[in-house]
Amino acid sequence: MKRAIIFANGELPEPAAVRGLIQPDDLLIAADGGARHCRALGLTPHLVIGDFDSLDAAELGALEQAGATLRQHPRDKDETDLELALLEAAARGASYLVVLGAFGGRLDMTLANIQLLLHPKLAGVRVELRHGAETARLIRPPGGVIAGAPGDTVSLLPLDGDASGIVTHGLRYPLRGEALVSGPARGVSNVLIEPQAHITLTNGRLLIIHSAQRS
Questions:
Q1: Which residues touch 193 (CB under 8 Å, ≥6 apart)?
Q2: Helix (H), strand (E) at residue 50
Q3: In order along the chain (215 residues), what is the average pLDDT of each group of 10 residues?
Q4: How far is 185 from 188, CA to CA, in rounded Å?
């Protein structure tokens, strides 16, 4: 499975842990100002993509000198820089995308980054938004698996409408063919009771937010 690590321009907590995440075969893509996170970690992204409104000429020159490919888009565009980065990673054959720096800063951008999990061109791609000990991803029918440790918090939130036919195994508060609907916060703060939780659903899409326990 080809993996891409994508650096967005939001907050990047626990940079030392992020540095340990990077593997030699990972495709590194920076969405505009996310390139600063790469440089702070001593990394050179393979590609920097966006409208470059967050990077000055000196930073762009240093990135290019270090070997990064720069792909500039017009500022007047329909896509966000992170959207461009995600689509480019998928176009290059990556089937597992880990996004860092997607949260923090502007609330509208944070919400838009979560909504990108619904992008139709990413339907067959696993996309994770990681922020410290938290990971957000989407589960579609027929379902998926959450791996962690007993005691981890897992929240199940319907995204883009209601989700139904949900069955869970390995969570403290089980669902047995039930629905989670938009509005009520019923799916928040469930807890792993096994190393893996299995979730199936028949309709809709679930935003899964997995918060690992701090050691």
A1: 150, 170, 171, 172
A2: strand 47-50
A3: 95 88 95 95 96 93 95 91 97 97 91 96 96 96 96 96 96 97 94 97 97 83
A4: 6
Beta strands across the sheet bearing 47-50 = 69-72, 47-50, 27-31, 3-7, 96-100, 126-131, 134-139, 206-211, 153-158, 190-191
Residue 20 dihedral angles phi and psi, to the nearest 5°: -75, -15
Give the integer Cα–Cα distance in Å for 67 and 81. Answer: 20
Long-range contacts of 61-70 (CB under 8 A, 24+ apart): 63/35, 63/39, 68/30, 68/35, 68/44
Confidence at residue 155, expressed as pLDDT on a 0 to 100 scale: 98
Cα 179 versus chain centre, distance: 25
- Locate all alpha helices (DSSP H) within the chain, ordered by sequence: 15-21, 35-40, 57-66, 81-91, 107-115
pTM recorded for the entire structure: 0.94
Report residue 132 as tokens.
């410290």
* Rounded-to-10 torsion of CA 56, 60, 65, 70: -170
Kindly state the tokens that stand for 197. 């939780």
